[in-house]
């Protein structure tokens, strides 16, 4: 098999309801580009019939279809990492299987890459998500940009294009927890963004719960910046200075006015605030230590059960 110009990497997790529609739209959209391509599906330990459907699609289009089957769920970003390590294209595009990003929009990213960019992100024109999720995403985007200095307008959108050099740099990293768009941004010399359409989910439910989204943002901020620790250190300094000033004030008041019996609940409130602050700091420190703990164990990031692809020697 010759090296294709374009690789499409699609992580799949419990998407049996959308795969048939995805196939019907994806392949014609890629054929229309006039580029040699391959589609790399990564089944991330799905518990439904997704793996069987992907096997059937490989048998139907073995010339341009490859399937990586995980033995267990490893998460969306690890599935994309596996796709990056096995894809062969010069331009690599990531796409979710839920059809919220139309496959027909891939051409916009490819055209932008042809202008000389090595990383192209996408911005959803009109998000088809709930108001709370849209607002929360925008708020986290602003906070993340201040902390990490990584400028990604729409961090939740996985429709993105990467050059081979950027993907090779990503593959050289051995992190067990990362955020691929942000990691790519740190390696890109000429990043760009394009506006794309966004549709409602074709079927099923989002695989990201509120807890998963919070965890993802913790990984993003602690994985690319020490600013949270630095901010907390500064806050600790200010609280210590404030506590010292309050202590001096109370001693002076006691000497001048005398002891007071009131203010007990104010003291409790101040104490609970400081205890909460300390617990938050311990939790933040634990995030960084937890990342170190995961890294030093050297466990495999994902387990590949099988790879379905055409024999390159027979096809050449």
Automatic annotation (TrEMBL):
UniProt key word Membrane: yes
InterPro entries per record: Glyco_trans_2-like (IPR001173), Glycosyltransferase_2 (IPR050256), Nucleotide-diphossugar_trans (IPR029044)
GO molecular function, one term: undecaprenyl-phosphate 4-deoxy-4-formamido-L-arabinose transferase activity
Domain Glycosyltransferase 2-like, residue spans: 7-168
Keywords from the named record: Cell membrane, Glycosyltransferase, Lipopolysaccharide biosynthesis, Membrane, Transferase, Transmembrane, Transmembrane helix
One Gene Ontology CC term in the entry: plasma membrane
GO biological process: lipopolysaccharide biosynthetic process
The keyword Lyase belongs to this UniProt entry's keyword annotation: no
Chain segments annotated as transmembrane: 231-252, 264-289
Name of protein: Family 2 glycosyl transferase
Organism of origin: Sulfuritalea hydrogenivorans sk43H
